């Protein structure tokens, strides 16, 4: 396919993800939703689900995705909808009683959700287990894990980070959504995560750092052939709440209510 068309398709997918995130948040009403962290990872998940991840409608051969920062599930559900896994009617049940779409992902293979995630720091270990399984069973799939930068406060992340290079898991791809915030404030003020790339390099990972909203750079990164036996980690510099003037770099939108007025105004900003 023409490269310009591929990029156009990814950008359109990303726009649609943002629209769906806002719609689901609005429909959730007083239950509110984790908006900011979902919007910061929208371009990342769009490149993965629209372009990079393979055989998503198959079983053993499909690439696996783990959203370790489970509170950002609005972006995950939106992507699953756009690839045909979750219906419109199902989307509208988000955070409602008896819904399959809770405020954090609950395992549901029929909807494309392989793992439950809510407690931070768990997803990387799950990804390592999957990567080891893929190699031992000679199943040719890759594993993609999205971590939050605030999540990297968790000691379990670094225990897992030590083990992946030891097992030479070059089928493991981790993306850190570095939006510089966590629930209660700026990461710098809570737990200094400066030199995050160097920290991961020191644990033996193949590390790169790019703009996490630049579709071209994201695509080029995932297109690179990496011959190393090392697991791969991308530090994606992002903006929390990316895409809407009311939410960008505004940590009030970590978890908040989208009113009808705000929803209508925000939808006009998507170009």
Layout of strands and helices, then pairs:
Elements: H1 3-28, H2 36-40, H3 42-52, E1 64-67, H4 73-82, H5 88-91, H6 123-136, E2 143-148, H7 155-166, E3 172-178, E4 181-182, E5 185-186, H8 187-190, H9 196-202, E6 206-211, H10 215-223, E7 232-237, H11 260-267
Parallel strand pairs: 1-2, 2-3, 3-7, 6-7
Antiparallel strand pairs: 4-5
Helix pairs in contact: 1-3, 1-4, 1-11, 3-4, 3-10, 6-7
Question: Which strand order spans the largest sheet, edge to edge or round the barrel?
Answer: 1-2-3-7-6
User: Which spans have pLDDT < 50 for at least 5 consecutive residues?
Assistant: none
Distance from first to last alpha carbon: 24 Å
The description of the largest β-sheet is:
5 strands, parallel
Estimate nothing, just give the exact number of structural domains. 1
| CATH H-level homologous superfamily name | Thiamin diphosphate (ThDP)-binding fold, Pyr/PP domains
Specify the structural class: alpha/beta
- What CATH calls the topology is Rossmann fold
Strand content: 5-15%
What is the CATH-assigned architecture? 3-Layer(aba) Sandwich
Number of H/I helices = 11
Report the C-alpha radius of gyration, rounded: 18 Å
The averaged pLDDT comes out at 93
CATH class equals: Alpha Beta
Please give a structural write-up:
41% of the residues lie in helices and 12% in strands. By secondary structure, it is α/β, with parallel strands linked by helices. It has a single domain (3-267), classed as Thiamin diphosphate (ThDP)-binding fold, Pyr/PP domains (Rossmann fold, 3-Layer(aba) Sandwich). The strands form two sheets. Strands 1-2-3-7-6 form a five-stranded parallel β-sheet, sandwiched between helices. The protein has a two-stranded antiparallel sheet with strand order 4-5. A hairpin with a 2-residue loop joins strand 4 and strand 5. Helix 1 (3-28) packs antiparallel against helix 11 and helix 6 (123-136) packs parallel to helix 7. The longest helix has 26 residues, at 3-28. It is globular. The model has no long low-confidence stretch (mean pLDDT 93).
């Amino acid at each position: 396919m023409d490269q310009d068309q591929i990029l156009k398709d990814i950008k359109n997918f990303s726009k649609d993800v943002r629209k769906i995130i806002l719609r689901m948040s609005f429909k959730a009403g007083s239950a509110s939703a984790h908006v900011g962290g979902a919007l910061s990872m929208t371009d990342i998940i769009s490149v993965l689900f629209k372009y990079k991840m393979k055989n998503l409608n198959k079983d053993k051969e499909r690439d696996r995705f783990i959203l370790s920062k489970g509170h950002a599930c609005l972006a995950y559900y939106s992507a699953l909808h756009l690839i045909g896994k979750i219906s419109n009617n199902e989307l509208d049940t988000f955070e409602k009683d008896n819904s399959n779409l809770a405020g954090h992902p609950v395992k549901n293979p029929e909807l494309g959700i392989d793992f439950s995630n809510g407690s931070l720091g768990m997803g990387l270990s799950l990804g390592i287990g999957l990567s080891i399984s893929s190699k031992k069973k000679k199943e040719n799939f890759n594993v993609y894990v999205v971590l939050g930068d605030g999540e990297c406060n968790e000691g379990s992340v670094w225990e897992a980070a030590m083990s992946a290079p030891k097992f030479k898991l070059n089928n493991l791809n981790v993306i850190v959504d570095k939006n510089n915030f966590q629930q209660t404030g700026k990461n710098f003020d809570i737990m200094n995560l400066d030199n995050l790339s160097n920290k991961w390099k020191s644990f033996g990972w193949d590390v790169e750092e790019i703009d996490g909203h630049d579709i071209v750079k994201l695509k080029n990164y995932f297109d690179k052939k990496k011959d190393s036996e090392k697991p791969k980690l991308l530090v994606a510099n992002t903006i929390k709440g990316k895409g809407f003037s009311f939410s960008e770099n505004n940590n009030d939108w970590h978890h908040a209510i989208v009113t009808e007025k705000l929803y209508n105004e925000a939808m006009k900003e998507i170009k």
